[in-house]
Amino acid sequence: PTEGTISTIISSYYDDQCEFSRENLSIGHLIGKGAFGFVYQGIAKNIKAEEKVTTVAVKTVRDDATSEEIENLLKELSVMKMVGKHINIISLLGCCTQGGQVMLIVEYAKYGNLRDYLRRKRPPGHVLSGSFEQDENDESYKPDDSDDLIHSLSTIDLILFCLHTAAGMEYLHSKKCIHRDLAARNVLLAENRVCKIADFGLARDLTQTYYYRKQTDGRVPVKWMSPEALFDRKFSTKSDVWSYAILAWEIMTYGGTPYPSTSAEKLFDYLKVGNRMAQPSNCPNEIFQLIESCWAFKETLRPTFTQISENLRRYLYGSS
Ligand code: ADE
To answer: Ligand 1 mean position to 55 CA, how many Å?
Structure first.
């Protein structure tokens, strides 16, 4: 593609309502890295009506990004605009598309990704449910949680995280958006320990090796995929519910690694004959029954996120 096409693409995404002036944004240190680009912490002036300066996260593409990668970031921008605001979703604050590198300005989550947070807040001596553990992810960006007075999370805290993420997913589905990659690594934790679903606007290239490739810490993304997504590339609200079961299992195990001794190749047969992960020692029966309904082989048997969040609210706050 020529220079002409990419500037045409960028122009086609221009939106005066959303464009933020580059002079009012200062970029800080790197807080995340993906296959496509980088996430930095930043400070934005007058991006919110209620405060003069706001700490934000800034998503960009690499300097040598292809026009396709730039367009993927712009597609993510339009999905985020379409989805709008919810407490349990990372929201868009603005963007810089004109006169320089394309940047998305999103809400900053001070405690970083949920998976690493859960691991940091494991109670001392917590026994992992029958799994060997991989080494710590050396590429993780340690957020500053020195002001976080909680040393370890209780089971109720974990169930509350399950509710936050289910409520975020209920909202996302109500906006006709399917996530396709729901996992604790894609959930962020913000002020007051509120979970926020992130990376829901990413265009997923299903031919890419991402799903089969091991992450730096040994986790394989296929382990969050439902059988029909894995084999027929059939992604739906129901495949998100399956991924949610794996996410809820990660939460209840304080960031455990799913199926540590099953290879990606053997996973389908393993699931097909009815194998699933075991009930974590601290997980109440009612919560595990809910998780089990979410990883039903038959899609139609899985609950909706409305039913999941109702169920969790009833467990936490009693029937109303
Ligand atoms: N890492 C990636 N995105 C982030 C965000 N919005 N806030 C904090 N850390 C992040």
So the answer is: 11
